[in-house]
Amino acid sequence: MARLRPRRGRRSLQDLGGAARDVRTGASGGPRLPRYASDVWLKRQLDRITGADRPVVLLGGEEYGAPFVIDALRERERLAWVALPERARDDPVAQGNALASALDRHEGESLLPHALPYRAHLRMLRQYRHDLQPLWIAVTGAGVAPGFADELLGLGEHGYRVLLSFESVAAPELERLANCLVLGPADLRVTRQEAPLVLPGGLDGAELDALHRATKGRFTELLTAAQRVAQLPRTPIPSPVGPALPRREAEAVDVPMAVLALQREGRLVEALELAVRAAPDMVEDLLRAAGPAYRDEGALPRLYLLLSSLPDPYREHERALEWRFLAAFATDTWRTMAEEVDAHLDAFSAPELRARRAGTLPPEQGFPLAEAAARSRRTPLTLWQYGRMHPDPERAVDLLKESVHAAEQVGTPYEVARAAGALAARLIHLGQFQRARSWAEYALQVFDQNGLRDGARRLTLFNDLAVARVLSGDLAGLRRGLEDTQASIEGSLPDLAAMYRSTLAWFEQASGRPEAALELMRATFEGSPRQHRTRYAYQLVRCLNEFGRHEEARRTADAAVELSGDASAYAGRLGLLARGMACAVTAHLTGDVTGHGGAAEDLIAVVLDRSLAAEERLTAALHYLVVEEDGWHRLPADVAEALGALDAVALRVLSGPASVFQRVWDTLAPARAELRLEFLGRVSCRLDGKEIGLGPRLAETALALALHPDGMTREELNAFLARDGTAGLSPGGMRATLTRLRALLPVSDAPYRFTVAYTADILEARRHLLEKRVRDAITLLKGPLLPDSEALGVEEQRWILEEELRQAALDTADPDALFDLADRLRDDLELWDAAVTALPPGDPRRALARARLRRVREEIAPGRNRPAQA
Amino acid sequence: MTREEALQRLEGTWTFDLAGDRVLIRDPALLSAIHAVRRERDAQAAREGVPMGTMPVQGVAASGD
Q1: The pTM is what?
Q2: Min CA distance, A308 vs chain B (Å)?
Q3: B6 CB near a chain A CB, below 8 Å?
Q4: pLDDT digit string (tens) for A419-464?
């Protein structure tokens, strides 16, 4: 009979040894787990479970042996084990954390973010299904979160195997229960015939009968009772994080001892909970480390409950008050505490509490408080708040740098990431995108390398990094992260999802996919509450202008102005921006000079408003220059300077169609080439600023000429254009093609070549590769070379270019370049292998790359990655 | 939020079970850590001449710092 073989590196049921005495003392050795159990009763359960073609629900939980079943199942199958703690009840974030931890343990590194509601994780699991499956997801304690459990069952429709274990023997009320195989007490009970084989030898028939009757065949109880009678060590109960003693064998210990031990083990969330409940005098000191742990886990709502449950005087102590206030802020109930906090601030200097209070006030009231806090004591927190709120941009940048430095010296990695992230955001606001990018990258590195878990903060950091990267023209490695994140948080984190859609729209605009950008911005605008619509209106107008939908752009802008009527001054300005953009483009195209004035005034008002973000002011300035050709002298120096320094990609993102903006762009960066061609991912051709439409055959011909500056003979051109297995064009066909091309572009007689200066994206990409600028080359790769073409010359060049990029990425070992290219080329083993090596620990893409690598290897050599089986 | 409201909402969500003024522990690794803490405390008490079981476990930080 086959035996289940434990996998290396994981504590298996066999490894647990069944030695309660030894487990308690931590000593190794002792009796092994009874093999008889796995040979008889477990096999019966496993055969039913693995043979089922639907999700499985176990009733009765630990008493009926569910942990043993799951532990044995993970010896057979790839399985992530989710243990739901009691504190996850009614807490979607804690439920998400439990799921994320299970996947992290299974993958061996961080895959899913923590501190996000579980629906974000379920969406990610659906997205990553091809890389992660085959995979079982087993949940113990499912009764803690029936809603979560029910939605998890839905993963069964996406190829995952799901097993839920409920402690109760009563069937849970789940919508999807009817589609499950339900194994209740009658199925899980050890039969009288099995009992002699399940239990240790040496018990006589009468003893067996008595035990079986007393325990009603409940596996765990029967096993423990039999071991007690036989005076054998107890078999520990398996769990995803290690063995546990049987319930009746739990040891009663002093609470302060347990709190200290939990603290020492780094289990700060549990330590604080226990202290709050039974050792409140330990809370104030414990909060120093445990408060950040709760924040990191996204558990501030629970911290608020815990600290509110403290008896007097412990809840009034300063650190308890500060964390209670912060937790109340996270739950939007801080106003009920404001009076209590202000009374404390009247009596004590309390710099950190003062800094936190500052953040809840409007800037004009909050800034003096933040300043007083920093003057009282310069800590990472007080400096961060002071810098964040400082109205002088340069001073703000200095203070935030000081906060980073202070956090590095005396603070925590979280404080370093928080200060560096705030600095990046401030620099983006100022239009210093390259500098912002450096700080955002640093913040993210600190976050990932230190295993920080506050998922919402990481999403904000990554978004800021993406904005800085797009606006400095570096798109390498961004698409997957932006797309996956946006898709995963839709429906569960609406504000963050809108922010990601907006950033993704810019990315799509920069990548030459304006249709996708328009779709994203339309969804964002229409899906936002009224107060937020103006924030996105100008981006939607920009997308509509790209397609010449001027009427819709105008309607959107008018709506934005109207909706911003009673909102903030900021919303009002953004309404003006949207209207100015719509009017400027329409006026330019129609030559309607009467429309210029209003648009120009709207736009210059935005340009001059220094409280607005750089991307808003720069967008306004670019549109202003469309209607006011000589308007440079009205632009403030900082805007004029930022425009001059703007990357070409960013310039296009913040402008509009080339037919309207080419003149402005040429003013900023005089064009050298008369003919501009794009063949990567899409076809674009502009001659002296005018768009020329090229059909597929003419695009192939233009590509051939672009690749041969010295010209091509008719035979060479024909060979380039021929399809596999065909003789190519007839002389008449070739002549007609060239005639049609000459009607559009300047082409010489044979040898054929362009007779004007020209640029082409494929040539630029190769130049970047020659100069070892792989990221720039990848940024130009908006898609395959003429993706629909089957011309032999095109197919050859497509393959050569991909290979050139591939080699260059492998040579540089740049993680973004490798991941981006591996993702585009899908199943390239070498690229995925290199990506896994290059990506730093903690970067969620690394777990994904590892999963993809495993799948690709599995496809090449089936069975290589499966759990070992005898 | 009052203390009573908070306690009511926390009902049924505690990680550990209590037995009187003690806590029930099932995790062998945690029990090992607890025994280690106890041994250290007893050793310290012996060094300082304090009778076993009377050593304070932990000082409490002053309020208002």
Answers
A1: 0.84
A2: 6
A3: yes
A4: 999 999 999 999 999 999 999 999 999 999 998 989 889 999 999 9
Q: pLDDT tens digits for A96-132? A: 999 999 999 998 888 899 999 999 999 999 999 998 9
Range 44-63 of B in CB contact (< 8 A) with A: 57-61, 63
Q: Closest Cα partner for A614 from A580, A576, A645?
A: A645
- Chain A, 290-319: which have a CB under 8 Å from a chain B CB? 304-306, 308-311, 313, 315-319
Residue A537 CB-density burial (10 A; 0-12 exposed, 13-18 middle, 19+ buried): buried
Give the chain B residue nearest A347 (alpha carbons): B64
Nearest CA among A809, A799, A850 for reference residue A829: A850
Cα distances (angstroms) measured from residue A30 to each of A72, A216, A228, A517, A744: 21, 29, 16, 64, 86
Query: What are the structure tokens assigned to A130, written together?
Result: 């091809």
CB of A256 less than 8 A from some CB of B: yes
In angstroms, what separates the C-alpha of A558 from chain B's closest C-alpha?
44
Q: How many CB atoms lie within 10 A of CB A128?
A: 20
- pLDDT tens digits, B12-47: 999 999 999 999 999 999 999 999 999 998 888 888
**Residue A528 vs residue A70, higher pLDDT:** A70
Structural domain boundaries of chain B? 17-47
Q: What are phi and psi of B19, to 5 degrees?
A: -130, 100
Contacts of A310 in chain B (CB under 8 A): 3
The answer to whether A464 and A421 are in contact (CB under 8 A) is yes
Helix (H) or strand (E) holding A447: helix A433-449
| Cβ atoms within 10 Å of A719's Cβ, excluding its own | 15
Bond before A134 cis per omega within 30 degrees: yes
| Nearest CA among A328, A381, A329, A327 for reference residue A350 | A381
Residue A525: enclosing H or E segment and its boundaries?
A: helix A514-527
CATH number of this structure's domain A36-187: 3.40.50.300
Which residues 6+ apart lie within 8 Å of A332 measured at CB? none
Among the partner-chain residues A257, A313, A318, the one whose CB lies closest to the CB of B34 is A257
Per DSSP, A711 falls in state -
Whether residue A280 contacts residue B48, with contact meaning beta carbons closer than 8 Å, is answered with: no
**Which run of H or E residues covers position A164?**
strand A161-166
Name the residue of chain A whose CA is nearest to B38's CA: A257
Residue A687, SS3? strand
Single-letter amino acid code for the residue at A847: A
In this structure, the strands spanning A136-140 and A79-83 are parallel
